[in-house]
Amino acid sequence: MSGFKKLAFALVMVAVTVACCMCMVGDSDDAYAAEVVESGTAPNGVVWSLTDNGEMFISGNGLLDMYDLFHEAGFDRTRIVSVTIHDGIQIIGSSCFRDCSSLKSVSIPNSVISISDHAFTDCSSLEKIVIPESVSYLSDVGYQFGWCTSLKSVEIRGNITKLPEWVFAGCASVQAIILPENLKEIHDYAFFYCESLKDIVIPDGVRYIGDHVFTHSGLEVIIIPGTVWYCGEIYSCPSLKRIVLEPGVHTFGGAVDCENLETVAAYDGIYDIGGCVVCPSLTSIVIPSTTVFGNSLEF
């Protein structure tokens, strides 16, 4: 082998050696990143582990109840940055991840059918939530994602027919909420203080909208679909300019303290409508002559 060939061969071998070392370092880093620092088994057999970079992995069947663990003396729940729940878990229990203030992401599997009250309340770093198609029930007590102040995006893919009270209350950063097509009921204060929420599409098929659902939201237009039998009072929406009650809406509780509200339009089918109180910008009202006005009528 000539001197030139020997030199070329040596350089190739050096390059290969360096590449292998880099791969080993990378593998070492990955292994280090995945190092389990704490783990345990719940009384019902659910197994969990937590790595030193804040990743929590959970597997098992049935109910997931982490509240007792997270509130034991000595367990620092602020270490949890992400949660991956594996198939098998069916119910996320009450206050399960409450006050996990560093939690940024959570993966919910298609085996989950129910999310209990306060499950993610005060997870102030959580940025996105996707509720899978398997979920059909959110506990009536509500507050599932209350005061998740960094939450920006919500997608509900599940067969959920009812949004409970306060479910997204205090989610001041949320900009997009995709509601399921088979939704039937939205209860009181569901979007309370969702200040960054500028637009929302209420699906056809919704029958009931409670009181103060949109209080202190950033909505500029609220369109109530004609399938709604009852829509409660819309209270204190400072950005709201227009309310449209599509043909078929039966009862509307009115609007109160919506300082920039300019237009209320109701069409055929509206039977009972409350007043618009402390709405100084209101200049246009469209109401059928057959409408029966509520006791608080004031325009």
What does this structure look like?
Residues about 5-30 have low confidence and may be disordered. The radius of gyration is 26 Å and the shape is elongated. It contains 2 helices and 26 strands. It has about 300 residues and is α/β, with parallel strands linked by helices. The strands form 6 sheets. It has a 7-stranded parallel β-sheet with strand order 12-14-15-17-20-23-26, with no helix packed on it. The protein has a 5-stranded mixed β-sheet with strand order 1-2-3-5-7, with no helix packed on it. Strand 1 (about 35-40) and strand 2 form a beta hairpin. Helices cover about 10% and strands about 25% of the residues.
Give the oligomer, counting copies of the same chain as homo and different chains as hetero: single chain
Strand order of the largest sheet: 12-14-15-17-20-23-26
Uncertain runs are 4-31
Order of helices and strands: HEEEEHEEEEEEEEEEEEEEEEEEEEEE
Q: What general form does the structure show? A: elongated
Euclidean distance between termini CA atoms: 99 Å
Overall average residue pLDDT: 88
Say how many strands there are.
26
Q: Strand pairing plus helix content: what structural class?
A: alpha/beta
Largest sheet: 7 strands, parallel
Helical residue percent band: 10-25%
Q: What is the alpha-carbon Rg in Å? A: 26 Å
**What percentage of amino acids are in beta strands?**
25-35%
Tally of helical runs: 2
